[in-house]
Amino acid sequence: MNHRPFEEYLLTEEPLTAEQSRQLHEHLLTCDRCRQLETGWGEVQRLFNTTPQVTPQAGFASRWHERLAAQRAKRHRRQLWLSFSITAGVAAFLLILLGIQIWTSLHTPEQWLLIKAYFLSVTITIVDIAEALGEAIFEVSERFSLTPWLFVIGIGGLLYVLRVVTGRQKGTSED
Fold first, then answer.
1. Between 102 and 160, where is the model more confident?
2. Is there a contact between 17 and 42 (Cβ–Cβ < 8 Å)?
3. What does the H/E/C string look like for 72-89?
């Protein structure tokens, strides 16, 4: 027996025609399954109508906004660490490439000593610059967020390494 039309008659919100009502009534006299559906659906509708609506607890909106702000801050920190990690990884990779290139270009001990002296002077200069920059960043960080500054410094370091690598390649290609 096809129960589908009778199930639809029972569950629909639209009024039934006289013929549909008559067919449904006759079917319900002989079909236990559809009678159970009618009884169950009536109970569900009664529960919908008698159950009181639940209202949110006091302060729900403020707690939700606080949680949303915390989630955004957490996502921001995660993105910051990700960008910092990628920048540091790329810089380390480029420094390794630079070291390999320098190592393979050495022909004599004199060149090696000159390069070491050059790197020592560059390192001392970079440390002096980093110290002055650190002091400036510390003073500025009292008023502003430190995050953009760290990103700018990382990008600047990456650009400097790229400049050194490309400058070194130009110098070796002319020899």
1. 160
2. no
3. HHHHHHHHHHHHHHHHHH
Q: Is there a single domain that holds both residue 156 and residue 87?
A: yes
**Spatial separation of the C-alpha atoms in residues 164 and 142, rounded to whole Å:** 33
pTM over 0.70: no
The average confidence (pLDDT) of the chain is 80
Summarize pLDDT for 56-97 with one digit per residue, the tens.
888 888 999 999 999 999 988 888 888 888 888 888 888 888
Which structural domain range is residue 100 located in? 69-174
Q: State both tokens at 80.
A: 């910051």
Residues 96 and 167 in one domain: yes
Tell me how crowded residue 6 is: count the other CB atoms within 10 A of its CB. Answer: 21
Two structure tokens written together for 28: 């319900």
Do 26 and 108 belong together in one domain? no
In a domain, 56, yes or no: no
| Residues 6 or more apart in contact with residue 172 via CB below 8 angstroms | 101, 105
> Do 84 and 137 fall within a single domain?
yes
Q: What is the DSSP letter of 54?
A: P
